[in-house]
Amino acid sequence: MVWEKEAVSSHMWPADPNGRKWTSERFREVLKRESRVGLGQEVTIAAYREIAIGISRRFLRGATAFKTEEGDENDEWKEENMGAAIADEQAGHTAHIAGMIYARGIMEQAGVVADRRQQFRESSTEWHRFLGFCEEEKEETRSKKRKRAPFESEADEARIDRWGRLRKMDTTAQLKRMMGKTAEFRGVQQEAMAAIVAGESPIVAVMPTGGGKSLLFMLPAWAEQGGTTVVVIPLIALRGDMMRRCKLLGISCASWEGRRPPDAAAVVLVTPESAVGEEFATFLNRLRATRQLDRIVIDECHIVLNRRYTFRKQMQQLGRLVAAETQIVMLTATLPPSEEDELFQRMHFKREQVKIFRARTTRTNVAYQVIRIEEASKKKEVEAVVVKTARRKVRQYRAGKVVIYGNSVPKVKQLAEQLGCNAYYHDAVGKAGMLADFMAGKQQVIVATSALGMGVDIPDIRCIIHIDWPWTILDYAQESGRAGRDGMPSEAIIIGQEGSQRASEDKQSEAEQRLVQLYAEGDGTAARCRRRVLDEYLDGREGREGCEEGEEKCDACRGPEEEMEGEETEEDRGEASSDDEDMGVVETEREERQRVFRQQEQERQGPRQTFIQQRQQEFSDVEWLRRQLAWWANRCGICEAAGDGPSEHDVRRCWRQESRDTREAIKTIEEQIKFESYSGCFWCGVPQEICNRWERNSYGRYQRTKDRDCQYRGVLIGGLIGVALGRAETGEQWRVRLEEFGVDNSERGETLIEFLGKKRALETVESNNLVGEFCWITRLIAE
């Protein structure tokens, strides 16, 4: 019997006849891996087919392009190949017969026709040119630039005209037309509006609750309704209120629904979850293609800083919206200066790019107070103080409303029952009706959790009472800021028991806990002005001694009061305008508008490029991690560093005397490390995307597999500690790096084990500091 090797098709491209075939599965995995690294997102074979045909039809030429319709004739191909076809016909055969039978080259493969091979070559050459693989062509052979479709030019022209009219708009006059003759800009509204209509981006406006933040996008949308403003709104209550206000002003406004995209709306409202989804990304792409997308507004933009990984994780991913390459406007009432850099980082902005407009956010008409109950007081005594205070304030403000906040649902339910009012919390039955009754005045008081935070726009709330210590000053400022939005005197009160739990592991850091303590107790010697703490943190204002003239006094202020320094005001500066009498002047202005417009478009590409580069780097890091895990599995860092013996064994079984300390360190870390939720596999620390113990379910989340275990268990810790302790120089570099992260293994700082188990926030994969440090140290020794 004769044994023959399996025949390999010439179209499978192996390196040699015995090479590995390029099967669909192999190509799929390589394409996904390389596109993630190169493009920042996965491309599948099905997607590639669509992309390739679309590119070919739009950018390639002649016989090398896919036909646009079945049966289409290609005049260019006919002209180029008519001569050869006539010669074959004159010889008494077809071009196909000539290629298959006559004058075949001795190196020609079976079943291949020479002219078809040449056409394949030309098609490949066209792709090479398109992808930039070829040297530059000579001027006479260079393909012509693709002619733009008529609708593209018209849409561009309309967009530039719309942008030009907005830049010249008299914002004060338009405000009076929209809101009434008595309407005026307040605070930093006019400065921020000037930046928006000028097309600057990104813009951050920090204004107090009730300060008119929504006007900053409603006025441009009202004045120029040819485009679309996308507004990301975190809560349903806010969305309903915004739709009502837009309707009253005659602004076409729609809420995003995947099945019915609101293409014609001037304002489109969308939740953070939908805003980062694929369907909405397609909608944004369509708006961009038709030149309708004017700006994206993120209302309550401090939600991007959400650090609770278990709560609405998509809020942290809103930085993806920079891919739309449009004007970004961010609005909030609570953005401490100390948090600005983190916000900019999550949104992929550079600080020097951002135009930030900041007004004082603490409310002058709110009197702040803290009622501290002794630690020794019994539970019933504490409850009695809370109920007594609540009832007293309800009686005091009969003409207004009272909101009482609690940190737990059971406590909220209990107090609501005692006061005979509604209890409002996340999954309360009929909570929409509760809120409607409260807004309409049918209920004077409501007891709620933080679920009643953002979205409460009720002018006559006279008193906000917190019956627990707030989680953070940021939360407290947001919730207490709901009082007195009509400008009338109001109160914000905290009732807290000394020694009661103020912190929650996933809701409050040590720094935030200290800030709440400073607000409640002062500096240890005397109570500090409540406004001083709020102003220093929320607005970066230093030097305040106490409540000032024109402000409702807080309970901590005593003695003579200093007058408030006068605030500087800017006079409205009108721009002289006249009709252009000369056509040349009009054309010059038009060209200048186009130049400035194009320049702004280029500047907006910066955040998107930063976003893509970060995703590419993360995907590249994941591929690096895969390779390093495979290499360091069953490999000893001590012996690898020594270089004088075999290293293909686990460091835990190393025979060297100097490996003893390393083994003990590894054992200690493995026994004590606890990985944060959503930071990787709980057993090995490896991202769930890589670990065999996990698989994706139909919802795109990870679930445990039934019969598979971690393939890299112990590799991360063994590799990291083995290299760090096996190489003195590398270990010293790592020690310095850890100090920069605040890790010093002292009582004052975070321990190494705590640090390694913490989640490391990434856009594309859930990971932790152990993975990050393993990648860092393996890259270091590779270099």
UniProtKB/TrEMBL annotation:
A GO MF annotation of the entry reads:
nucleic acid binding
Identify the residues that the record assigns to the Helicase ATP-binding domain, covering every copy. Answer: 194-353
Residue ranges of domain Helicase C-terminal in the record: 381-537
Q: What is its EC number?
A: 5.6.2.4
What's the domain of life for this entry? Eukaryota
Q: Where is the composition biased (Acidic residues)?
A: 562-584
**UniProt catalytic activity:** Couples ATP hydrolysis with the unwinding of duplex DNA by translocating in the 3'-5' direction
Q: Which GO terms describe its cellular component?
A: chromosome; cytoplasm
InterPro entries (UniProt xref) = DEAD/DEAH_box_helicase_dom, Helicase_ATP-bd, Helicase_C-like, P-loop_NTPase
Which SUPFAM superfamilies does the UniProt record give?
P-loop containing nucleoside triphosphate hydrolases (SSF52540)
GO terms classed as biological process = double-strand break repair via homologous recombination
SMART domains, alphabetized: DEXDc (SM00487), HELICc (SM00490)
Uppermost EC category: isomerase
* Record keywords, A-Z: ATP-binding, Nucleotide-binding
Q: Where is this region: Disordered?
A: 544-611
UniProt biased composition (Basic and acidic residues): 544-561, 587-606
The family line of this record is:
Belongs to the helicase family. RecQ subfamily.
User: What is the name listed in the Swiss-Prot or TrEMBL entry for this protein?
Assistant: DNA 3'-5' helicase
Q: Which source organism does the UniProt entry give?
A: Alternaria alternata
